[in-house]
Amino acid sequence: MEPDGFHMSPEEFRRHGHALVEWIARYRETVESSPVLSRVAPGDLRAQLPPAPPQEGEDFSSMLRDVERLILPGLTHWQSPNFFALFPSNASAPSMLGEFLSAGLGVQGMLWATSPACTELETHVLDWLVGMLELPAAFLSTGPGGGVLQDTASSAVLCALLAAREQSTGGRANQEGCRGNLVAYTSTQAHSSVEKAVGIAGVGRDNLRRIPTDDAWRMRPDVLEVAIRRDRADGRVPFFVSATLGTTSTLAFDPLPDLGRICRAEGLWLHVDAAMAGTASLCPEFRALQAGLEFAQSYCFNPHKWMFVNFDCDCFYVTDRAALVGALRILPEYLKNAPTLSGAVIDYRDWQVPLGRRFRTLKLWFVIRHYGVQGLQHHVREHVRLAGEFAELVRRSRNYELFQPPSLNLVCFAHKRGNAAGERALERVNGAGKLYLSHTKLADRYILRFCVGQAMTRAHHVHAAFQALEEAGDA
Amino acid sequence: MEPDGFHMSPEEFRRHGHALVEWIARYRETVESSPVLSRVAPGDLRAQLPPAPPQEGEDFSSMLRDVERLILPGLTHWQSPNFFALFPSNASAPSMLGEFLSAGLGVQGMLWATSPACTELETHVLDWLVGMLELPAAFLSTGPGGGVLQDTASSAVLCALLAAREQSTGGRANQEGCRGNLVAYTSTQAHSSVEKAVGIAGVGRDNLRRIPTDDAWRMRPDVLEVAIRRDRADGRVPFFVSATLGTTSTLAFDPLPDLGRICRAEGLWLHVDAAMAGTASLCPEFRALQAGLEFAQSYCFNPHKWMFVNFDCDCFYVTDRAALVGALRILPEYLKNAPTLSGAVIDYRDWQVPLGRRFRTLKLWFVIRHYGVQGLQHHVREHVRLAGEFAELVRRSRNYELFQPPSLNLVCFAHKRGNAAGERALERVNGAGKLYLSHTKLADRYILRFCVGQAMTRAHHVHAAFQALEEAGDA
Questions:
Q1: What 8-state DSSP symbol labels residue B290?
Q2: Distance of alpha carbon B23 from alpha carbon B157, whole angstroms
Q3: Which of A366, A452, B361, B411 would be a feasible disulfide site paired with A98, CB 3.0-4.6 Å?
């Protein structure tokens, strides 16, 4: 490999690589016994690190020792089977191997020409997923649409917003700058990334209307319709709606058929964010939740949230790739090449904010092939079943009550004796280290969220978690 | 690890992991013999892939076989010692191991609380680099500034632009939207990411002034000054200058001291992009190139371009982190936690466009510790020395002449018999597969770019490359 200088020799790479494989395997076998939520205080790690970097190189084994000694205590163990917070971000073994291979190949996929397989595998696997999730055929790359990997749903909604912004202004926002009269819409329950995106894109956070939700936290189409009408009357230009399939707080599903009809009638771009819940559509019995998706101009879901692909991996689809490319394309001389100029290939750099891109599809491809469609379906069903079991325990609890029926793999519940009791119980279980779950606040209630999805979570973890919560709730 | 369901068992992970270590080691030992630039035609890979995903899971070994059989022919081998195109993107063995470990741990660094070590190691290593590169102390996290990892320099310049936009509008652009009167400046030689960023941010591409360069392709301060004055006279609001240390085409260095004084006098935010060349500052003898950096409010360079860290890894610094956070911060209920509310910790989600982030510092930390400062210096000097050797060969060439003296690890040269001859020679060597280099166009000349920096590139590769070019140039 590298025969001279200060490089790691091929023999050393093999030796340390094999040691690392063993280390990761052991980490995953034993992570269950670590406190899930890190207990360090701010500054603890930095106080133990040398103030200056080493002048001379060190052996790899000393780094692995420091990971064990210094880093592990400072980690919140997302891959623990007792991690029930936020969203799973479940990383599987085939996915890790895919990421490692991507690093080992070290190729760039910014242009088709800089590594054709990197682009074509991505397009192909994203087309596979259209079938696997029964998404609208308009998202297939074989028509005018297509899919691309983004890092996160935040970047996806920004790209969707930019494409919509250009379409609605005939490319003028990109050229001349925003004018402060565009208006976007989302629900009060939508992810903060929508607000971040309108700020970034120069549309302005004040020009994002947060449409109220119904009693099940779903965006209200009647209010949206009125808001659009009022904005038009005020001389503003409504152009974009971001709907959510599976909101962050309670996994609520906006009514796409109604929202979609309004967007179509009014000529607004409909973006749909299904970051975690999108994975559920692997199973036919959950696909009713995405009814109305055929109205959307763009869509995203994150295999890094619930489909066993390690972060980052967001699948982003558009029905009209020309609109997206039109918003982001630049072609300087040093990137010109025959395939690009022929128009016969996809250059994904024009589908995203950054220019460079690594070979991220490998891990997604490996996960789909390792599990097969049936294996992925099995685990999604199992997670939903376990969430249902937990909800049953809550129904019979002496301390807690369901805030709402479970939604897929998420259970939202509250302490019967009020918010302070719920907050104290959460602090107690998280502080004890045996499990980790997070919270939200809705309708003046402090809601505990229990989200199932880690690769190593089994029924007994769910039952033990409930037991710990029940005991903490007694105090 | 995962004892049931469709998961890869711990034993299988060990077996396939060890096989993959061997595979990657062998790939790097043999990549030299592969055609550097892929020879496939558009659609070749997709035609060989199954139209639908497998219903049942497959063995990992079949995937590795397909990588060998289907993927490798479709790759342009960036890690080949005969890759001299664009920029090196050199990936070292310790970096790959760091990426693999990051995937194995699978933690999220969006908040300090979601894995404190992930945040603190990043802040710490970025502080190390301030010393290693002798950057201005204002970029240290111990004062009001600090560093953060971005994916690319494109994202870094966007974040810098957003911070500057908010500062110059008192936060109004974020809230109310852009108004089309802001003006940004960069040189005609700046990277396309600056233009992309002003488009995204709603400033408008028409409001980016491309300041002409002098005869060494450096931004002309006198023209910048006049342009700012003219824009102010027209009622516009100059707010941002993006200067380049090491331009994409010829690795030219903008005159920071002069630009900096203008920015300071006029109250403009100065961003400095040193994507590839920044690494050279590891060596004291190259630091004169960054004189004037003390005028900058933000700076970035990419260890994934020339410092042996696999993509993606961009180090982005600001002198005033409050300005950056002010432009990107949102705090929804579900992300509230005691350390965040205390103000005592860094939450890096507010320093970037996406919310989620993986543990990217591990690979950077491993690279610095494996090589040590001296090892990294050695290799940078060696690359510069090899570029100098190549330039010597060009000086004595029967076909080529230097377009300019070599700049660090880049040699720009042209065919003596004109552009068509140069273009044909480039097509011939790239098509033959023995090496890969790219081109640019300047002053109506077709320039060949020879950039040295791959981990495995040695003197004999450089000499063989020149030989191949000389032969291709004869025809």
A1: G
A2: 37
A3: A366
Of how many residues is chain B composed?
475
CATH value at residue B424 = 3.90.1150.10
Task: Tell me whether B365 touches chain A (CB under 8 Å).
Answer: yes
Assigned token pair, B87: 């920029």
Contact A165, A179 (CB under 8 A): no
Are residue A153 and residue A301 in the same domain, yes or no?
A: yes
Pick the closest to residue B147 from B373, B352, B404 (CA basis): B352
Query: What pLDDT, in 10s, does the model give residues A377-386?
Result: 999 999 999 9
Same domain, B380 and B308: no
Q: Which of residues 297-326 of A touch B (CB under 8 A)?
A: 304, 310-312
Residues 6 or more apart whose CB falls under 8 angstroms from that of A59 comprise none
What confidence score (pLDDT) does residue B136 get? 98
User: In 3-state terms, what secondary structure has residue B411?
Assistant: strand
A2 has pLDDT over 50: no
Give the contacts of A267 (CB within 8 A, at least 6 positions apart): none
Q: Which run of H or E residues covers position A300? A: strand A298-301
Nearest to B80 by CA among A107, A120, A11, A118: A107
Question: In angstroms, rounded to a whole number, what is the distance separating the alpha carbons of residues B145 and B139?
Answer: 5
Total residue length of chain A = 475
For residue B168, count other CB atoms closer than 10 A to its CB: 18
Of the three residues A357, A388, A418, the one that is the final residue of a domain is A357
A8's tokens: 């790691």
Q: Which domain holds residue B239?
A: 107-357
Is there a contact between A282 and A289 (Cβ–Cβ < 8 Å)?
no
**A76 vs B207: CB contact, 8 Å cut-off?**
no
State the pLDDT at residue B2: 41
Assigned token pair, B199: 């488009």
DSSP strands (E only) in A39-140: none
A38 found inside a domain: no
Q: What is the pLDDT of residue B116?
A: 96
pLDDT digits (tens, 9 = 90+) for A199-222: 999 999 999 999 999 999 999 999
How many domains, chain B? Answer: 2
* A250 → chain B, closest CA residue: B334
Are A73 and B117 inside 8 Å of each other by CB? yes
Q: Look at residue A87 and tell me if it is in a domain.
A: no
Residue B445: the pLDDT is: 96
- List all residues 6 or more positions away from A163 whose beta carbon is below 8 Å from its beta carbon: A269, A297, A298, A318, A320, A323, A324, A326, A327
CA distances from A229 to A238, A403, B82 (A): 9, 34, 61
- The predicted complex's ipTM stands at 0.97
- CB nearest B120 (choices: A13, A45, A312): A45
Which residues 6+ apart lie within 8 Å of B31 measured at CB?
A: B77, B79, B80, B456
Q: Is residue B403 domain-shared with residue B330, that is, in the same domain?
A: no
Q: From the CB of residue A301, how many other CB atoms can be counted at a distance below 10 Å?
A: 31
Could you tell me if B353 and B380 lie in one domain? no
Contact A230/B at CB under 8 A? no
Answer for the pair A312, A304: CB distance below 8 angstroms, yes or no.
Answer: yes
Which residues in chain B have their CB less than 8 angstroms from residue A6's CB?
Answer: 370-372, 374-376, 378-379
Read off the pTM.
Answer: 0.97
Starting at the edge strand found earlier in the chain, the sheet holding B237-244 runs B146-150, B314-318, B298-301, B269-273, B237-244, B182-187, B208-211
B45 vs A63, A116, A368: nearest CB: A116
Percentage of chain A lying above the pLDDT 90 cut: 95
CB A416 within 8 A of CB A460: no
Whether cis (ω within 30° of 0) applies to the bond prior to B312 is yes
Q: Centre a 10 Å sphere on the Cβ of residue A474 and count the other Cβ atoms it contains.
A: 10
